[in-house]
Amino acid sequence: MLMSFNPLLRIENLSKSFKGVKAVHNVSFRMREGEIIGLIGPNGAGKTTFFNLLAGAIQPDHGHIFFNEQDITKLKPHEICTLGMARTFQIVRPFKELTTLDNVVIGALSKEHDMSRAKKNALEILQLLDLQDKANQQAEYLTLPERKRLEVARALATKPSLILLDEVMAGLRPNEVDTMVDILQNLNKQLGLSIIVIEHVMRAVMRLSNHIIVLNHGEKIAEGKPEIVTKDPRVLECYLGEVAA
Ligand SMILES: Nc1ncnc2c1ncn2[C@@H]1O[C@H](COP(=O)(O)OP(=O)(O)O)[C@@H](O)[C@H]1O
Ligand SMILES: [Mg+2]
Question: Which residue of 22, 47, 104, 179 pairs with 122 in a disulfide if CB–CB is 3.0 to 4.6 A?
Fold first, then answer.
């Protein structure tokens, strides 16, 4: 299908192999500003590798990444972050000995060198993530859902226009998942934040995504509207494989 919008993100034939394993293979797609894309696929499909490529943590073997039509394929992670792309990590890793607030202040200082303004920004972000009551608590003592929200807060502190969320709802109870979905929808609407979510929790994927992309063995096997993609036989088949494994 021909798309005529100016994409926020344009991925062209992106590939990355590890010792012969095609972790990401020839993936292309476009994303509009303000969209929420769900990136799904069984374990080992290449989702996290794909985020690592976008964020500049690893270099692709082939292909290109354009962010606001600028070729960012060879840029370093901090350069990509400065351009407005932020990511979370599948394994949450806050600075445990620091307070919740200071964890977010550190992120804010990447864009804001005035300490009092960085602190003010950080407090606003804590409020958006419903963590304001935990501001002075050491991050080590946060609950899992709070740590997941802190991970999002730290990424948001760098003032991104696009945020990449790697399984921020894994391990959460259904009501905690709903809270996170509400928060993310609010960020999307209030800040115009564009979001790509890697997520196994289908309840969250279906509620959040405008568009779903399915990876299997590194390849994009389907994309489109959530209710259509999740009924696609190829998609069902790759998940059945996972259940049987
Ligand atoms: N740094 C790495 N070195 C070697 N193999 C890797 C590395 N990172 C990922 N892989 C392999 O690439 C494939 C995709 O992994 P990953 O991107 O983590 O999948 P997902 O996030 O979809 O579960 C897997 O086969 C995995 O073992
Ligand atoms: Mg992963």
Answer: 104
Q: Is residue 110 scored above 90 in pLDDT?
A: no
**Which among 22, 48, 49, 90 is the best mutation to test ligand 1's pocket, defined by most ligand atoms within 8 Å of the CB?**
49
Q: Which residue has the tokens 């550190």?
A: 106
* C-alpha of residue 8 to centroid of ligand 2, in Å: 23
How far apart are alpha carbons 71 and 107 in whole angstroms?
A: 25
- Return the number of other C-beta atoms located less than 10 Å from residue 178's C-beta: 15
Which two structure tokens, joined as six digits, stand for 67?
A: 């962010």
Q: Give the start-to-end residue ranges of the domains of the chain.
A: 9-93+151-244
Ligand 1 pocket list (CB less than 6 A): 18, 21, 23, 41, 43-49
CATH architecture of 9-93+151-244: 3-Layer(aba) Sandwich (3.40)
Q: Could you report the per-residue pLDDT of 173-226, keeping only the tens digit for each?
A: 999 999 999 999 999 999 999 999 999 988 899 999 999 999 999 999 999 999
pLDDT band per the 50, 70, 90 thresholds, residue 245: low
